[in-house]
Each structure stands twice: as C-alpha cells, then as structure tokens.
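Hey, quick one: can you model this chain's 3D structure?
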Amino acid sequence: MSLLALSLALAGGGEKSTRSDDAIDGLWSGTLGRTAITACFANGRGSYYYDKYLIPIPLRDGKDGARWTEGHMTGGPAWSLARTGDDRATGEWSDGKRSLPIRLEQREWTASEEGWEDACSSREFFAPRLFEPVFVTEPAQLGGWTYEKVIWQPPAHFDDNQFDGFRFDADKPGDAAIGIELGKQRPTGRSDDLYIQCSMDSVSSFGNDGSVSITAEPIFANARWLSVEDTQAYFCAGAHPAYSWSYRVFDRASGVEITPQEAWLNRAAFTPGEYGGFELQDVLRDLLQREYDPEQDDECREAIGWGGSWTISLVAEGLRFIPSMPHAMFACTAPIALSWSDLEPYLSEEGERVRDFVEN
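Sure thing. Here's the predicted structure for all 360 residues.
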C-alpha cells in the first residue's frame, strides 16, 4: 500500500466534505502562475504549498473568502479569489510589483468522526508531504553495553523536526518489548506520527508547520535494567513552545517500564497522590533541594520544592531525580543525584534488592 493510500486509510470512517457555508472554505489544487499548488481555507485562515517544495505558506485575514494576505508579516502578497463554478475558483496573486493568475479546483477531504478537523488539518492536505523515513545509525557504547544510535534524516520540508533515538540487540527476555516501546516515538512516515499531528494542528491554526524535537538516550544499562533519558521540545498550536525532560526505567527481564517511586521507594519518600501519581514527602524534598545544582539561583531552588511530578532514573551510584517544571520555570530543570547511602532510609525491600544487584 502506498503512503498516500495508507495515510488516507488511517482517517477511518469520516465523512467526505467539499463545500461549506463559506464560498472558499475547503481543499483545493491548481496553479499559481504556472506552478502547481495545493491550498486549504477554513474560517478566515488558510495555507498553501507549491507541490514541488511542500512547505506550507500561511494565508490570513480572509474576507468572505475573497481576499487573503500571505504570510504573517504586514505588506505580504495579496490573494483575490472568486468561485467560478461548483468546484472551481480563479483569482490573482500580487506582491505589488507583479501579478500571477490563480486557478483552483476543489477536492474532497475527509473529516474525522468527531468533526473537529478542517481542510487544513486533513490527511488529504498532508498526504503528498509524507515520505518513507530515512535513518542513519552510529555504533555506540555505554560502559560495556553496545547499542546503535538511530538518527532520522527528515525531508527538506520538515527539517525543523528532529529525532535521535537508539536500538539494541535483544539478548534478555524483555528486550524485544522494550525495543517496541522505544520505537513508538520513531517517525514512520504516516499521518499519525507525532510531528505530523503537531503540524496538522499548527497549519490549521497558523498556516505553517509546527516542529517536534525528540532525543532518547540510554544513560545506564546492566544485565537487568535499562535507564533512558528522554527530552522533547515542540511547538504546535499553543501560545508558546513546550519542553519536557524525563527518565524512563525498564526491567530487561520482563520488558515492563518501572515507576521507581512505587516500586523501589518506601512511604517515607513518596505517597500516592490524591489525583493519581505520587507526592514527594517533605524529608526527601529537603534532601533534593540541598543536593540541587549549586549554580542555580534561590528562585529555582524554591521552585523544585513546590511539588508536582518527578521522574527517576537508575544509575550505578544511586538514583537521579528530574522535576517536571512549568514552562516559565523550565530553565530550572536539572537532574539531582542521590547516592545509595543518601537513599538508605527511603528504599523499599525491592529497592534494596535493586541496589544490591547494581552494586554487586
């Protein structure tokens, strides 16, 4: 099955849509001058790309579907459009110095069953932009453990996106399941990829692509456990970019992802939260604040004591803690390392067995 057919199949049982109450809203293809383009319009916003470049260009301030301004800056080129038949529209592109004719033909697009999508976030608008992913690999080692870095080579029209991951040979019972779980973030070239979903939201809201950057890197591995550091940055359709920095720990015997707060620490460290998750106890919070990066300022030191969620990584020397910080305080995010001796009062029986296994 081609990527185009596959991406459209992912749309499920949505309804085909062409016309709307607006004279121009919908999905169109045609030419600007002599160059083939694909365009979409929805609720006074729009976007188009040249079929040979596939980079969306915003259209805004649509007035009754007749006039549009290209780009986000003032003084951008202007579009004028008028429907000339049930499925055709013509108009003119002008930058004040030259003018080019626009000829468009309306196309069907598939709305989701929930009905929240528009033509600019439709799979049909994005399908020509999807390509089989290309990766390069690099051999790497962590201690005596061998793995491969997996680095995505995005197509030119998505070069603001990044994925750096890794893979390894499955030589423990749970390794295959871990590999599958880690591979879920890897681009596939289908419309359900995270960076495509992000761009669908962004094009619908702003007319241009969003961006996603993901890095997953092993930071500890032995015969039983694998710790992964996961960082993400994305800008889709929100008021500002979003960032996350977290840890994941996997049991190589079972393939199960471990929540160290629940499995390895006792109730002197964490207690179950009222609305799910785990709440840090004051005595451990004070210890983490004391061990926090001394180069960070007092405001950041105070911020990590507010509560919120934490992720924990296993390393040879003990455990590392990362707080989940709000956008305005994300610069305060920094790993905090506690040694096995620091953690002695807070280890559960299972945590003590993990410590003994790591140290021996």
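One thing worth noting: The mean pLDDT is 89.
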